[in-house]
Amino acid sequence: MKDIADIRADFPILKREVYNKPLVYFDNGATTQKPQCVLDAVDEVYKSYNGNIHRGVHFLSDMSSEAYEQSREKVRSFINASKSQEIVFTSGTTGSINGIAFSFGESYINKGDEIILSRLEHHANIVPWQMMCERKGAVLRVIPINDKGEIILEEYYKLLSSKTKLVSVTQASNALGTILPLREIIAAAHSANVPVLVDGAQGIQHGIVDVNAMDVDFYVFSGHKIYGPNGIGVLYGKEKWLAELGPFQGGGDMVDKVTFEKTTYNELPFKFEAGTMNYPAAIGLAKALDYVSDIGREDIASREKELLSYATDRLADIKDLRIFGTSDHKISTISFHLKNIHQYDTGMILDKMGIAVRTGTHCAQPVMDRYGIDGTVRASLCFYNTKEEIDFLVKGIEKVKSMFA
Ligand code: PMP
Predict the structure, then answer these.
(1) Partner of 9 at 20 to 30 A CA spacing, among 62, 93, 183, 242?
(2) Does residue 189 share a domain with residue 49?
(3) Which atom of ligand 1 is nearest to the CA of 225?
């Protein structure tokens, strides 16, 4: 793997100081920082070939369209989808799930049907389904979790029934870090003829994702969590599903022929891309995927595993610190709580030391309710973090404790 100093040098923001202290960025679960090559790729679009895609016959539009379609192909190969028609660009994970919840609901859901989610879901994988259920008279069923923050598979198997129309689960919990047993979840759903959507917002950046090997029906993620720009996301769907589903937005580019009496839709994947897409961000995302591939996805996974193990050991040594999410299968995210100290106080004191952590419910209130807490402090690490930074976090936590002693 590339030397850590060289990796860090790729990310301009990591050089900055906050409150005259070096930035220690441990909020990668919320959004990752961007390497220079991604910033350059987006800049280059606006500086030298910006033209609206799929619209004009002119030089710039052609160039932008081609770069956008090459980005789609890059995403296809990154997640090993069979065809680029199966890759739809969206605004992000939230946009992708809302889209599928709408289209799937319209096509397949009737009164009394059931959708299975897990207790670990981010609000983005709860609320769109809830809205759809309200529209259609359908019901959400929830896979419970144990004290370690792992889903209870036996309970999932019991929930699957002839009423189940879809299973939608996260690849990894953003609040606790737990990695879900997707192989078992997908196999059981498929043996009951039920499709599965995987929310990859906290999965794609931590290792190799192969949608073909997973045999997943829908896989969604956000560009900004994998070192790409904001405002771009991906919706992968097996061709058979995308071909059957209706569009979730209407507008320019997603149509074939429009009259006031009737509109016919464009072919895949354009049927799902209404209006001017965020093509500069898609082009930036493709560059981010190149960057991650160049660093090496297996190397990223093993480095993050090492950082997780180091941080977990160091934090576990701190008296009165409780870690939430203690599964053996975790992404490099650690959620914790200090006895008798509110997470916002901890977060604010760490901030003044230059350490960026997330505090609160992490858009996963049902997870917090499961433990009867109103939030945690979350340090989400990634490959550009260092053990020295983790040591500094430990120092920060000790300082917080001494201030409240
Ligand atoms: N799902 C999970 C598991 C997430 O962690 C997040 C972002 N925190 C989302 C969905 C939503 O992603 P976005 O805000 O980029 O749409």
Answers:
(1) 93
(2) yes
(3) 15
For ligand 1, say whether the CB of 376 is within 6 Å of any of its atoms: no
pLDDT digits (tens, 9 = 90+) for 27-72: 999 999 999 999 999 999 999 999 999 977 899 999 999 999 999 9
Is residue 31 domain-resident?
Answer: no
**Quick one: 273 and 329 in the same domain?**
no
The domain in which residue 361 lies consists of 4-26+296-403
Nearest Cα neighbor of 216 from 225, 204, 232, 206 is: 204
CA of 30 to the centre of ligand 1 (A): 8
Q: pLDDT digits over 229-284, tens only? A: 999 999 999 999 999 999 999 999 999 999 999 999 999 999 999 999 999 999 99
Residues 391 and 256 in one domain: no
User: Rounded mean pLDDT of the chain?
Assistant: 97
**Are 267 and 338 members of one domain?**
no
If we measure between CA atoms, which residue out of 66, 88, 124 comes closest to residue 238?
Answer: 88
Regarding whether 118 and 267 lie in a shared domain, the answer is yes
Question: Is residue 201 lining ligand 1, measured as CB closer than 6 Å?
Answer: yes
Ligand 1 atom at minimum distance from 170 CA: 3
Pocket test for ligand 1, best of 32, 171, 173, 202 (most atoms within 8 A of CB): 202
In sequence order, which residues have a C-beta less than 8 Å from that of residue 3 and are 6 or more positions away?
A: none
Supply the CATH number for residue 397's domain.
Answer: 3.90.1150.10
